[in-house]
Amino acid sequence: MIGDAIDRLDGRLKVTGGARYAAEWPGDGLLYAVLVQSTIANGTLAAVDTRDAAAAPGVRLVITADNAPRLPQNGRAAVNPPAGRELSLLQDRTVRYNGEPIGVVIADSFEQASHGAALVRPTFREEPPRINMQEALPTATPYVRKILGTIEPSHTRGDVDAALRAAATVIDETYTTPIETHNAMEPHATMAQWDGDRLTLYDSTQYVYGVRRFVAKTFGIPEQNVTVIAKFTGGAFGSKGSAWSHVVLAAMAAKQVGRPVKLVLTRRQMFGLVGARPYTVQHVAIGARRDGTITAIRQNVTSSTSVFEDWVESASLQTRMLYGVPSVATTQSLVRLHVGTPTFNRGPGESSGTFALESALDELAYRLDVDPIELRVKNYAEADPETGHPWSSKSLRQCYTQGAARFGWSRRKPHPRSMRDGDQLIGLGMATATYPARRMPASARARLMPDGSIAIEAATHELGTGTYTVMSQIAADALDVPIDRVRFDLGDSRLPENPISAGSMTAASTGPAIDAAARALRDRLQSRGVRPSDLDACRTAVSQNGGPIEADASAQPGPETERYSMHSFGAVFAEVGVDPDVGQIRVRRVTGAYGAGRVLNAKTARSQLMGGLVYGLAMALFEDTLLDDRTGRYVNADLAEYLVPVNADIPDIDVIVVDEDDAQVNPLGVKGIGEIGTTGVTAAVANAVFHATGVRVRDLPITLDKLLSHPAGA
Amino acid sequence: MFPFTFQAAADEDAASRAVRATPGARFLAGGTTLVDLMKLNVERPSVVVDINALPLTAIEELPDGGVRVGAMVRNSDMANHPAIRSRYPFLSQALLAGASPQLRNMATTGGNLMQRTRCYYFRDTAMPCNKREPGSGCAALDGHNRIHAILGTSAQCIAAHASDMCVPLTALDAVIHVNGERGPRTIPIGEFYLLPGDRPEVETALEPGELITAVDLPPLPFVTRSVYVKVRDRASYAFALASAAVALDLGDGRIRNARIALGGVGTRPWRAHAAERTLAGARPGAAAYQAAAAAALEGAAPRTHNAFKIELAKRTLMRALARAEALA
After folding, report:
1. Which of A133, B56, B131, B265 has the most CB atoms within 10 Å of its CB?
2. Does B3 touch chain A (CB under 8 A)?
3. Angle A350-368/A681-693 helices, nearest 10 degrees?
4. Helices A467-479 & A506-527 angle (0-180, nearest 10)
């Protein structure tokens, strides 16, 4: 059962429109809210004229800093980054980025609210904003707080300076990545409904308990007064991991008008207000001996954040542990720009960090004239070089071997511009993928119901990843019942608490809790002499019990996290074709081989890894959030101009999951596959483009103008 | 979106009258540009006149060998029509290179002729734009202008014309039929689009309330040897960074005649007469195509981010010429 490639259980609901997303919940007397946004990036809101807006047809209320209800601690009661973000809740008049919410218009229809929002006339006192990352680099300051509250932001081992001086060869380059905006297909949406001092939020979120905690604290009401519901979330990618301004503003609006209020962001509003991957400027120096032994790596990462919250793109973490290098030094610094606060995005840290590290490794391979895989194998880390701990499991060698075989790496001729297909220049590139295997405390309930079905409950989330399906498989497996006996419920803060569905943690956190609850129920039934697979006996037992028979359980990481280093690893291979005249790049084939512990469902796992690879291709070739340097406007804030791949851009993708037993990570041996697919891909493509053209692009995305303008030509 | 009155027009005269009656009124055809811009508050018509019921959906073969395409013919229908595919292959190719299937199923011939620019700043009401708000300035001159025009620009506007369809139409010297206060008249496409100059808000030679009713494609037998080459950032659903529509008349080892228009680089669909002249009488081949490309881009005026378009447009044109030559 576990591991079987069964179809996703919610597939039919989704394709028939039966899956209810946040914006689709009905409300009695529902009103619609639309945000009013700043049109400057830095300054103050001097005045705001709402007379026309308030008088517009259908408009019920306009909330601005002039009349917004005062929140405890000026709306900052729940601020505790990154779990609780610094928001824009109309409690003051400071403007800190362009597009910052400065008001809410509530009307009978969405169209009327939009119209009303356009009629609000703010006046600003404007100060010059700091927008351009390159120009702002001299203002960078070291980031000294712990990353995610636990990880030292910088790392030093050995003597990197001395090792670089003594190295036979040194690669010393700077790699940059742009702001990448998540752009989930479903826009962020919140429907808020008050019943006295009790609040229900239907929210597009990755974390119902987190939103509940944050919103309750922000309004100064008990947590148990707030219910957050998210039965389906239409893609999230980190941007729905914390409550952003619109969630609180929707609740504020509903409270003020005494009616349920729905607030759905427009596509344009998804740029700036709800996070993005920040700019990174990554200086990498690698020293090596002639034989390819890497003796030192330095990586200094500078990423951008907003002027009001420090959020760091931890792009240096993989450099500490990925290769067995004696001398390593990494730092993280921040530049504060007048932009929206960045956040976790599709393999945060590792996706951008592996671009720099794995590109630099490729540069070293060409410098030394060694095969890129050989170089990586030569510097293979047999244990975690940062902590000295053994790996809980690591199958990277198998990933290199199996991936290379399937991809046909041996076909590759070593020199750039040495392979052609007709007019096209062909390039083959590879890179290592990696992502930490983390988990957090989770709980679950299993209930045998009067009809004999087994209700499994856990407040986790379905983001499109297959949670309903794999969790049902785990429960069915533990109880040894057919999967159609299991009814799994999630996405409701009244269900047992579960962590944020992010950081590739859902399967590894919630999975073991469900396994434990199902086993506890099985034991309870067996103590009554009832086999869970015996439907009649089950029904009788419930009847005798006078109600459902329940078992609760929880699961959490233990001392094993102190003894083992836990990561997933993979190898990504890309073949590109480059048009030598016009520089157009097409990815022709991708192979990704991964060792990620036990796979819960071969089909959804493959889909998820494939999705990660597609987003890696998006980073490599397309994604680029353009900011106007003078004003901080998000310039290309729609899906016609903010490019992500279309189907025609996506080639055959070959996903290999290497068999891997891991007895340490958690009782199920699951590592999680949400993010690793996105890591390494950018470098594999950049390395393939270099192989095809001889042009090294160190600045994402790799667009044709960067090839055309290069002296070497495309 | 601002409130508006919606009217359905019963015939051409009623449609034109309805639009003339209210300044800023707009015809609604496929809506793929208008509705988008209305949502952004860039377009704020007080009246929207729906012309979808007008019988302008025919593709007719004309006695002179040309083809007349009704203004309400959907882009996908025109692209797949046998007469277009066989006689004007580059037009069919250009249509299919544009937008996405869903958009092509809605977008119309007349609407495509009226397609607005994708300039980021035109589409953002918080930014100055002389085209949207005359006299407010041009934010693109010193802003993000990678996608902007390098030909036909002015100190007031560098917005690129976005259409693919209009590029081969311009190469063909298509003739646009309109109907309005003065009654039916025709406008050659070469006179239809105005350069931005000092008045970028005036984009076409249409008079207020004039309705496009049809487009005539002239009989031009050698256009069977034509190609459209489009270079863009992704494989589909992206506007051209540079495109070229080319038709070649070959005979006796010479180029007798050539038609060339460029897309993605001009403030209007860009006819390259000078390049055509360099080719007339020349031997087909790389040398001639290089000379033509140089002539086509003569006078190009790049800004910070779009200088690459000069070389890109040249190479795109050379490729189109070589492909046209290679056709059987």
Report:
1. B265
2. yes
3. 30
4. 30
